[in-house]
Design a protein that fits this description.
alpha+beta, five-stranded mixed beta sheet, 55% helix, globular, three-stranded antiparallel beta sheet
Length: 503
């Protein structure tokens, strides 16, 4: 036999093997192929990856072992939506599940910030941020910043839109700009005014869009073999090239912010206390000082911008497409939040927001179905056994899907796909407490979100102000679906028409 015949014979044998495997696995949700593992199914379903992952987890009872290509172990991991497994990973065996080397490489943008840290470094950083974020002065300052931004920018912009009759507004873009300005004001002591107060002055700003580009890159790194995305990074092609440009834009913006805060002694302390304290801590880190300050700023910027704007976008879409829910929220606001002098909602206190039980339930329901972070990533330090019975080897990557957990019948019942704020309200009209390892939007265990309380306040302030003043109607035919990203943004934005509400 000559070389051509040998090659032909090899191809025929390979075809027969793959055909046999395909025939045996044609009814399998995610077949495991020789050499290439389960990667083809992921790539084939990439456009709706979060829903595909949910269907796989449901099919396998809530926990699934993903096998990547043979030539890389980093693509193998355990995927779960089992709340008992999540409780085990995030709380009961917290010390056995850290970030791992893969996490640090995938999330290299976070640098030496809190989200990339483990052990004592993480505890020290969390204690610092807890001392800053939980002070009464910060909470008051944040509420004042939100109120000013609402009154001077967001509401005038929507009013301008409604009055002038401009046809379509991308609410996702508007809210991303709004929350970006809020976190910059609270963190750096100045407002970059990425959200103007007139619709015709809205323009593309690279440092605002940079974060979403980086989030897309982070998700791709999770299921693309490490050697491939590192090669793309080295030769600068595809999403890795776009991510690098975005990161450079973000770093340039942050450098200006940090220089501004360092050099301006007259900055209002109520605005600049966060970064000034971070700069003070950074001065103790020697050569790492500049990187620590920048990376901590990145972590806080991502946490305070993307998560809240994403939660708000899904909330407004769900409420606007459920008129009965919207009517109940409006009535609750009318009953609890009107001033004595005028038929307006203004300068509400945290105590008054606590009266809005149905609104709280609606926000929780939106976060249950569309958590801003689609999944979380851990790595086992030592071998272990999960409550589901699955064995975990040392250095095994574990991913728990926040998105899938909101869609599991065993957690939320047969109506888990329905938007029902009532599921959060008891017969006595009080909010029902759901353990964090089931309602996972703010993570669980020692790493639970430090900004949970202020996030609810910000979302309620925006929701009350917008729903009381405006009707928000999704443009007919507009496609709404999750974006293929680490952060659960909308793929096509949220295109709406806005009109003034008459009550």
């Amino acid at each position: 036999m000559d070389l051509f015949e040998y090659i032909t014979l090899f191809v025929v044998i390979l075809f027969i093997i793959f055909y046999y495997i395909w025939k045996c696995n044609k009814n399998v949700v995610i077949p495991n192929w020789p050499i290439i593992g389960m990667l083809p199914s992921v790539l084939h379903n990439q456009s709706h990856i979060h829903d595909f992952a949910t269907s796989v987890l449901k099919h396998h009872g809530g926990t699934f072992h993903f096998k990547g290509p043979w030539f890389t172990n980093s693509a193998n991991f355990i995927f779960t939506s089992d709340p008992m497994n999540v409780h085990h990973i995030t709380s009961k065996k917290f010390n056995n599940y850290g970030k791992g080397s893969d996490f640090h490489e995938i999330f290299e943008i976070l640098g030496v910030g809190i989200f990339n840290l483990d052990s004592n470094e993480w505890r020290q950083e969390r204690n610092l941020l807890h001392s800053l974020l939980k002070t009464k002065s910060f909470e008051i300052s944040l509420q004042q910043n939100i109120q000013k931004k609402l009154e001077n920018f967001l509401l005038p912009l929507l009013d301008h839109h409604a009055t002038k009759g401009i046809r379509v507004l991308d609410l996702q873009d508007i809210l991303e700009r709004f929350t970006f300005d809020i976190i910059c004001t609270s963190l750096f002591g100045f407002d970059p005014i990425s959200l103007p107060n007139k619709f015709n002055k809205v323009s593309d700003i690279t440092y605002v869009t940079a974060i979403s580009v980086i989030e897309d890159m982070i998700l791709l790194r999770h299921y693309t073999p490490k050697h491939i995305w590192k090669l793309q990074k080295w030769i600068q092609i595809g999403q890795e090239k776009r991510g690098k440009v975005a990161l450079e834009n973000l770093h340039r913006f942050l450098s200006k912010c940090i220089d501004h805060c360092k050099g301006d002694e007259d900055v209002d302390e109520s605005h600049s206390c966060l970064l000034k304290e971070i700069i003070k801590q950074g001065s103790e880190k020697g050569e790492m000082a500049d990187r620590y300050i920048r990376d901590t700023a990145v972590n806080l910027l991502v946490a305070g911008n993307s998560t809240i704007s994403t939660g708000l976008v899904w909330f407004f879409w769900l409420v606007s497409t459920h008129p009965t829910v919207e009517a109940k929220i409006i009535q609750e606001i009318k009953n609890n939040c009107l001033t004595q002098e005028k038929n307006l909602v203004t300068n509400l206190s945290v105590e008054e927001f606590d009266k809005l039980v149905y609104l709280h339930g609606a926000i929780c329901e939106a976060l249950r179905l569309y958590p801003p972070l689609a999944f979380q990533h851990k790595c086992a330090i030592k071998s272990d056994k999960l409550p589901s019975g699955d064995h975990v080897s040392a250095n095994t990557k574990l991913i728990y899907s926040l998105y899938a957990m909101g869609r599991m019948e065993q957690i939320w019942g047969n109506d888990c796909l329905e938007f029902k704020p009532e599921r959060w309200i008891s017969d006595r009209g009080e909010i029902i407490h759901v353990p964090s390892y089931k309602f996972i939007a703010f993570n669980a265990g020692p790493r639970s979100c430090l900004g949970k309380d202020v996030s609810f306040v910000q979302m309620k302030m925006v929701a009350v102000a917008m729903l009381w003043n405006f009707n928000i109607q999704v443009v007919e035919g507009h496609s709404v679906a999750p974006r293929v990203s680490f952060m659960l943004r909308m793929k096509h934005g949220l295109k709406v028409k806005v009109s003034k509400r008459c009550i």
